[in-house]
Amino acid sequence: MTELTFLPGRTALEAVGLGVRYRRRWALRDCSFRVPAGRVCALVGPNGAGKSTLLSVAAGLRRADAGALSVFDGLPADPDNRPRVAYLAQDKPLYPQFTVADTLRMGRELNPGHWDQARAERLIRQGNLSLHARVGSLSGGQRTRVALALAFGKRPELLLLDEPMGDLDPLVRHEMTAALMTEAAENATTIVLASHVLAELEGVCDYLLLLSGGRVRLAGEVEDLLATHSLVVGRHEEAGEPREFRDHTVVECRVTGRQLTALVRTEEGPLAGRWETSEPSLEDLLLAYLRSPQAPSLLTPSAEPRLGLRRAV
Amino acid sequence: MSAVAATPAAERGGGPRGLAWLVLRRHRGVVLIASAVLVVAVVQLVFLRLAMSSAIDGLQLRQACGPKGLDCVQTWSGADRFIAGYGDVLHYNGLLVELLPVLIAAFTAGPLIAGELESGTYKLVWTQSVTPLRWVAAKLALPLTASLAGAALLAVVYTWTWSVVPSALLPGRRWYESFDMIGVVPVAGAVLGTGVGALAGVLVRRTVPAMAVALAGYLAVRGVVAQVRPYLIGPSTATSAEMPGLTGDDSWRFERGMLADGARIVEPDCGVGVSPGKCLAQHHADRWYLDYHPASHLWPLQWMEAGVLGVVGVLMGWAALRVVRRVRG
């Protein structure tokens, strides 16, 4: 069972200078980050940030146009890696004329030797879905369930989910999240979950990757990222930024009337002066970075790529 | 890790496995319909051959009429009745054989390949444990095998049915006029259709436009090859002082002209009402020539053309695999 045990030193996903281009436009540019194995990683960013592109490169559906992305220290399209990675595309493509049973049979036929029919069927049964229902006749949420069952049945070590919960009602969303968490906990599966719905992620993910404009803005453990930032509130009547902010990196600073609200990095030590500081919520952090495109990126040590030293790809 | 082998033995029935299962399940409807059409076509072709054979015997159409033989008026009216009774049926069957590769090209380009790329279902398959290259290879190999078998069966039975009719009896159905419907050319057409369809599918990536492109591409290749068909093997040439006719016996006469000191003048323009002899003098030529293929050239020509079509088809299929490989390893 060694391969399934949580190993913080192992790398699930690692990018060095990754760039992907659609004709003239770069969807991803110069992205470098690392996601250690065993994490549940939120991939966040506004629409068009490059989330889907990143996942399709990791799934082996697209090639990188610059740099490299490695999956478990190999190429995503490596035949050895294909069985280890499951991918759920945003549009959840399935064959509409297949029954649910046919769809699961496809999983079995195309993943010889490591298909877990029981696990896939359990997820189907939880949704009270008939195995004989045609996929084309299912609702959006039911189709998502079938697609997830196909991904679970593959027993992946890395599960890539592109906006998986978009078309689920809150109850089913809760159920699916629980199923995902069980999957991650029981099998030490690394999960990368792309979303722009922040509510989907709070309390679910322990790792964060924030993309915007095709670049990495934040990467690392959610806890560490939150702990290295302070939400600052106070009265401020002079022009310009307060003097105490000079020694710190200011992500965002807004003044409404005399009220100042700022998000400040505190790696250099706590903020001096009369300011009221608190730890930001995940939403505060993400919104501040998304509103301030000029703020410098931040990668925690575990999210720094190591590939540069090894050049394994 | 014991759950890995958890697939119950009862579910491991017979039948195809892996990608073969997927391709057959995915196109089950087409497989059933195509098989049914093939069976019906073959059975009625066998009946057609038997019916034509007995009609030819009954109407005494095997021997030529003439001074010592049969009554020509009776023979001619018998021939008319035969043509009226069987000409169209045979013709439509021939069209089916000739157009089968067109259907194969359109199906390969559209539903088989571009449909998956357009609807995104390729993502589903490519992210299982098979490589895109193996998927495309399976997508091409199975339909290619099926269409080769189908086209070969249909072409053999049609050729067998067609060959029972004496060539003089059905004008327009001589060997060089039925060239696309008989022998190995329809089978090579199936290879070409698959290759053209695969390339159109991976390049166009949308179902209906891909089918249109495959159709145009197939017809273009066949058109070009048909243009060079007379020269695929060396033709025979006959020279004569009298102007030769362009029809006559069973040979394919495809070019006629004059020879002036060894130089060829193709189909010279003589003006209206000028006799062939005067025409020869007008052009300072001394003889007529005729390029033709005797009936014995049928099979060499068939194999040459089949070879050309097959090679072009295989190259296009290979190019399609290269395209997939370039986009995705």
UniProtKB/TrEMBL annotation, chain A:
Gene Ontology MF term list: ATP binding
InterPro entries on file: AAA+_ATPase (IPR003593), ABC_transporter-like_ATP-bd (IPR003439), ABC_transporter-like_CS (IPR017871), ABC_Transporter_VariousFunc (IPR051782), P-loop_NTPase (IPR027417)
PROSITE patterns: ABC_TRANSPORTER_1, ABC_TRANSPORTER_2
Domain ABC transporter: 13-238
Keyword DNA-binding: no
One Pfam family here: ABC_tran
SMART domains membership: AAA (SM00382)
Matches recorded under Gene3D superfamilies: P-loop containing nucleotide triphosphate hydrolases
Keyword vocabulary terms for this entry: ATP-binding, Nucleotide-binding, Transport
Keyword RNA-binding: no
Highest rank taxon of the organism: Bacteria
UniProt signal peptide: none
PANTHER family recorded: ABC TRANSPORTER ATP-BINDING PROTEIN ALBC-RELATED (PTHR42939:SF1)
Protein name: ABC transporter ATP-binding protein
Biological source species: Streptomyces orinoci (Streptoverticillium orinoci)
UniProtKB/TrEMBL annotation, chain B:
Keywords for this protein: Membrane, Transmembrane, Transmembrane helix
Keyword Membrane: yes
Signal peptide (from-to): none
Protein species of origin: Streptomyces orinoci
Transmembrane portions of the chain: 30-52, 95-115, 136-161, 181-203, 210-228, 306-324
Protein's UniProt keywords contain Chloroplast: no
Protein name according to UniProt: Transmembrane transport protein
